[in-house]
Amino acid sequence: MTNQAQPQPPALAAATAMFVEVLVVGIGTLTAAVLLLIALIGPATTAKLAPIAGSSTIAAGGLAAAYALGILIDRAADAALTPHRRRLRTRFFSTTAAYAQARLRLADFPLLAAQADYTRSRMRICRGWLFNTMTLTLTADLAMLRYSFEHRPLVLGATTALGAATAFGFYRAWRSLTTTGYRKLAEQTTPATTPPAPVPSQPGTTSP
After folding, report:
1. Alpha carbon of residue 56 to chain centroid
2. Residues contacting 126, CB < 8 A, separation 6+
3. Alpha carbons 92 and 113: distance in angstroms, whole number
4. Sign of the C-alpha dihedral computed for residues 9, 14, 19 and 20 taken in this order
5. Measured between alpha carbons, how far is 67 from 61 in angstroms, rounded to an integer?
6. Cβ atoms within 10 Å of 115's Cβ, excluding its own
7. Which among 8, 97, 121, 176 is most buried, taking Cβ atoms within 10 Å?
8. Whole-angstrom Cα distance, residue 156 to residue 141?
């Protein structure tokens, strides 16, 4: 008897995807927190603490912190963008109840539901990294202000401009994914209506 690999249960696959998604967002938030710490303690203290940064204990703690921060920034980003998201949703669903019913109907089509979940996952990553990019840009600028190096004004300006452009790109991606997700959900869950076929006229009768 040969052992065949069993497909991953949907619930486990969804939980794994959610863990990775939160971690991807949290790593950016943790990086911003480290840059802020560097800006606060300065170059001398940073050099003293650098040797312990690569220890396994710090790495494990950093992974746990990244996951926790990922949850925090995801909730904060969702709260900040909820009014805008609701305005986008009203283009396709007049009420919250209509949207909820559409989500329930989509569950009857596993393939379409999986595609919608993937779209929402990318949307949440873009949403989180929109805020990550802004905090990374700010903390990177603060950290560089504590160090003296050549062409610092130019580097600061380039970092700020790149951060602003990247944040705008994440916003546009989030908006596009959100709008597309609502539009597809409306199209996939709205029953198709076709006009009735015309009744052919019988011989010997005249059309009104």
Report:
1. 29
2. 170, 171, 173, 174, 177
3. 18
4. positive
5. 10
6. 15
7. 121
8. 6
- Which amino acid type is present at position 173? A
User: Alpha-carbon distance 90 to 96, whole Å?
Assistant: 9
Interatomic CA distance for residues 203 and 23, integer angstroms: 73
Is there a contact between 19 and 64 (Cβ–Cβ < 8 Å)?
no
DSSP type of residue 190: S
pLDDT in tens, the chain (208 residues): 444 444 445 566 677 888 899 999 999 999 999 999 999 988 888 888 887 877 888 888 999 999 999 999 999 999 999 999 999 999 999 999 999 999 999 988 888 888 888 899 999 999 999 999 999 999 999 999 988 888 999 999 999 999 999 999 999 999 999 999 999 999 998 865 444 455 555 555 444 4
